[in-house]
Specification:
Shape of chain B: globular
Largest sheet of chain B: 2 strands, antiparallel
Oligomer: heterodimer
Distance between the termini of chain B: 43 Å
Order of helices and strands of chain B: HEEHHHHHHHHHHHHH
Strand content of chain A: 5-15%
Number of strands of chain A: 10
Helix content of chain A: 40-55%
CATH topology of the largest domain in chain A: D-Maltodextrin-Binding Protein, domain 2
Order of helices and strands of chain A: HEHEHEHHEHHEHHHHEHEEHHEHEHHH
Structural class of chain B: mainly alpha
Radius of gyration of chain A: 25 Å
Radius of gyration of chain B: 24 Å
CATH architecture of the largest domain in chain A: 3-Layer(aba) Sandwich
Strand content of chain B: under 5%
CATH topology of the largest domain in chain B: MetI-like fold
Number of helices of chain B: 14
Number of domains of chain B: 2
CATH superfamily of the largest domain in chain B: MetI-like
CATH class of the largest domain in chain A: Alpha Beta
């Protein structure tokens, strides 16, 4: 009798172990990100999503930014692909889309039609014109300045390039590093140019012409803009060739420098490191007051679904959540970044509202947006040549020539 | 009976040797052949396309930008080899010789010289990267001893960047040849040195005529290891100057060129597996042939006891 009872109990337990999960039917999806810095933010988002969708469980896997591409490539080519993953924009997306690793989202995610054209450009494959990602963020290259220093020296936001140089001169005389930027890392040269000199080469007008081949990078107006970048050297820190990215950030955060040309994504970090830092932003102006003061903008991140994922329905549910204005609002308040989701309420973050104000004169961040689809990328050519310029081994003409010739090896409109 | 014993012995030998052979095969030989295989195809991002024979190798040696980057990187590897041979190995020889003369404190110095060899490359690269910053320890030291005008952005200037990284690497490795040469010099039979001493030879003649010819085998080993090391250098450049060989490819080596080409990076773009594999195959063939050549040249200089 006891034996029978024991056997019966064991059978009940066994059956419940198998049956109950089947009854609950929770699908678990893997979500890979390159932002270990934002783990707690995404945990919060995932919790909200799981409350609204109890049949889906999301497991976040953050990977270091510099290793992300390699690890993701290996996983997508092998068996351990995630279901939802952060994807780079433009050329970075092209890599995975062309290899067939991404799911085309045009029909599956009708919300995509509402996104702005500039954000859609970052998630679209140039081979077949399909959307392979849900745009998440856009970044803006502009100039940060220390408000306290400006008040102290009685300076105003510059409206022309000469006024900008005068402000740099004044802050240098007062003993600060006028400009925090250094050139040890190649990408720092790229955003120094994109944030500081976009108004000098004519912003979007020039971009549209160079994309079609109507003009080249050896156009005198572009060469002059590159030369202008070199003219900022006297205002950069002593031995700026050895100043790396983190040194630049530390210098601005500790109020040792008055200006920092960089991306809007720095704001969150600046605030977190020094809550007393009183900073604001402006777009670096062009030669005259009539020239629009451009900021370089690019789409930075997409959410994508792996084509080999066996849980596409659950993954799509997660993506639909990430396309809502409620999610976008939290990106603005918590991450202090510009969300690509249309219709997001930015009133909670005056900084982001100001960035969107400056984006009225936005121009594509020229090399990242237009020329990262083939090797050698416009970015890598410009970064290396610009380092040569800033260390006085190349002239502005040589820089532009190298960039032009490198891109012309694969870019048809340049191969007339 | 004897055959069974032999078979048993052979069985035991196979048992002990198999794990080693398996590891060499799976982790060294197989990837090598797969790289060769990959280099014979054209790739679109991560998908393999058609067979193109040696087209990738042709592109590597003639097309822009690969040809320029490859010759630039090879030039840097040559600099690595030249400076390491001249500075590190000569210093190692000097240290080894001095330590063998049993000066005061030689036991302590032996250990101190060897400690950097045990550090992790990433830690060494990171820390020295901090010291070589414009406001780092090296410049501060120069200012302290009155040589402030020589302070510069060591890793940021194209002219000094590679040499700064090479010197850091020498600091880390000099203990190794010191120890090897110390052992070799201690193994020179004392009859030879005593006989030379009695015949009135001074230190320099003793070293040139007696000690050096008898330690040539260790010179061979150190030379070959230096050759292989100079061709394979990657971690030091990666941790101190980044994957793109900043500034403006002045610190680029064939190791970083290979990694960047085969796997791509955020800035330099998509992976080019065909050409990357071709770079890997070329690196292997160069390392193999140059090592073989060095062994043959230095072997001919060895003196029989």
């Amino acid at each position: 009798m006891k034996r029978l009872l024991g056997f019966f109990l064991a059978a009940v337990i066994l059956v419940s172990m198998v049956a109950l999960p089947a009854l609950a039917e929770v699908t678990e999806i893997q979500f890979w990100t390159w932002r270990p810095e934002d783990v707690s933010f995404y945990d919060k988002i995932i919790k909200q999503f799981e409350e609204a969708n109890p049949d889906v469980k999301v497991v976040q896997n953050p990977i270091k930014n510099t290793e992300y591409n390699t690890i993701l490539s290996a996983a997508l080519a092998g068996d351990s692909a995630p279901d939802v993953f952060m994807s780079r924009a433009y050329g970075g997306l092209q890599t995975f889309a062309d290899s067939g690793y991404m799911l085309a989202l045009d029909d599956l995610l009708p919300e995509l039609a509402n996104f702005s054209e500039s954000t859609r450009m970052g998630a679209r494959s140039i081979t077949d014109g399909k959307m392979y990602g849900l745009p998440a963020l856009s970044q803006t290259m502009l100039c940060f300045y220390n408000k306290k220093v400006y008040q102290e020296l009685g300076l105003e936001v510059p409206k022309t390039w000469d006024e900008f140089i005068a402000n740099l001169e004044a802050t240098k005389k007062a003993g600060y590093d006028a400009l925090a930027n250094g050139t040890k890392e190649g990408w720092c040269c790229e955003f120094l140019f994109g944030g500081g000199c976009a108004s000098l080469y004519g912003g979007t007008n020039f971009y549209n012409k160079v994309i079609t081949g109507e003009t080249t990078f050896e156009d005198p107006v572009f060469v002059a803009a590159v030369d202008a970048m070199l003219s900022l050297a006297p205002y950069m820190p002593n031995m700026y060739e050895g100043v790396a990215y983190t040194d630049m950030q530390v210098s601005f955060i500790n109020e040792m420098s008055a200006h920092f040309i960089g991306g809007s994504y720095e704001a969150g970090y600046f605030k977190a490191q020094n809550p007393d830092l009183d900073f604001d932003i402006f777009a670096v102006p062009g030669k005259t007051e009539a020239d629009p003061a451009y900021v370089s903008v690019y789409a930075d991140m997409n959410f994508a679904i792996a084509a080999t994922s066996k849980k596409q329905e659950a993954a799509l549910k997660f993506l639909k959540f990430l396309a809502t204005p409620e999610y976008g609002k939290q990106v603005v308040t918590d991450l202090a970044m510009v969300s690509s989701v249309p219709g997001v309420d930015v009133s909670s973050n005056p900084f982001i509202a100001k960035v969107l104000e400056l984006q009225k004169n936005s121009t594509p961040y020229i090399f990242l947006v237009g020329f990262r689809y083939n090797q050698p990328t416009g970015s890598s050519l410009f970064q290396a040549a610009a380092q040569g310029l800033m260390t006085h081994t190349l002239t502005a003409e040589e820089v532009c020539k190298q960039v032009q010739e490198g891109i012309a090896t694969y870019y048809k409109p340049f191969q007339k | 009976m004897k055959i069974r014993k032999r078979l048993k012995k052979a069985g035991w030998i196979t048992f002990f040797v198999t794990p080693g052979i398996l590891i060499v095969f799976v982790f060294i030989l197989l990837p090598l052949f797969m790289s060769l295989f990959n280099s014979l195809f054209s790739w679109n991002q991560l998908i393999r396309h058609d067979f193109v024979g040696i087209d990738n190798f042709k592109r590597l040696f003639t097309a822009y930008p690969y040809q320029q980057r490859f010759s630039n990187a090879l030039g840097n590897n040559a600099r690595w080899f030249a400076v390491t041979m001249l500075v590190q190995n000569l210093m190692g020889l000097l240290f080894g010789y001095v330590l063998s003369r049993k000066i005061a404190g030689s036991q302590i110095y032996r250990r101190i010289f060897f400690i950097p060899v045990l550090f992790s490359i990433a830690a060494v690269g990171f820390l020295w990267g901090l010291y070589l910053r414009p406001n780092g320890l090296v410049n501060a030291l120069l200012q302290l001893i009155g040589l402030g005008k020589y302070a510069s952005a060591w890793l940021g200037n194209a002219g000094t960047a590679t040499y700064a990284i090479i010197l850091v690497n020498i600091w880390r490795w000099v203990g190794f040849p010191s120890l090897v040469f110390l052992t070799a010099i201690n193994n020179v039979p004392s009859e030879c040195t005593e006989a030379a001493y009695l015949d009135g030879a001074n230190e320099w003649q003793m070293f040139k005529r007696i000690v050096f010819p008898l330690i040539v085998p260790s010179v061979t080993i150190i030379t070959v290891l230096t050759v292989i090391g100079s061709l394979n250098v990657f971690e030091q450049v990666y941790t101190m100057a980044g994957l793109d060989g900043a500034p403006n490819y002045a610190t680029d080596t064939i190791g970083t060129l290979f990694y960047r080409t085969a796997f791509g990076s955020v800035d330099s773009g998509a992976p080019e597996i065909g050409i990357g594999s071709a770079v890997a195959v070329v690196i292997y063939l160069m390392t193999f042939s140059i090592s073989l050549l060095s062994i043959m040249i230095t072997k001919s200089k060895e003196v029989e006891m």
